[in-house]
Amino acid sequence: MIRKTTVRMIGHGAVIMLGWLLVLVGIAALFLPGPGMLMIFGGVYLLSRHHSWARYLLRPVKLTALLGAAEGVEQRWRIVASCLGALCIGAFGVLWLVQPDAPGWWPVPERWWLVGGRTVGVTLVASCLIALTLIYFSVRRFYGHPEAVAELRVMLKARKRAVARIRQLRRERHQARHHGPGPVVPPAG
Known about the structure:
Number of strands: 0
Radius of gyration: 24 Å
Strand content: under 5%
Shape: extended
Order of helices and strands: HHHHHH
Helix content: over 70%
Number of helices: 6
């Protein structure tokens, strides 16, 4: 009989492996067609369930991503432009899936026409669907809600101030440890 701790350990290991896999595939997708940043975010999210360093990384990324989503749907023309961009990506994905013959004006050897085959088409169509879904949820959450955008900006500024203060304290601690205490300044008065 398998103990609950063994099952928990296997689940823990599977989540960590999936998290690292998503991070690595996301890094590759930054250079290849695909939703690279989304995969990296998903991988760090999974890793944050078990590692404090990932939680530390996740918070500013999440705030920045939410702020970008909120600012991306502040005006209608941005929503339309984002949807058109996503649909263009989807159209290219369909082109890759259909695999038509190279046109007569194609200047390089035919083997360079639609490089990557149907796999690229699938990732492009998936990217289109993911983008349209994210736009939909961003519109629902942020469009017409300027207070939500302002709140995100305040949270991001507070986070940056806190990080700057932590770095300052670390520098002071490092200075005191390696170079002795700084000059003693008598109190004013």
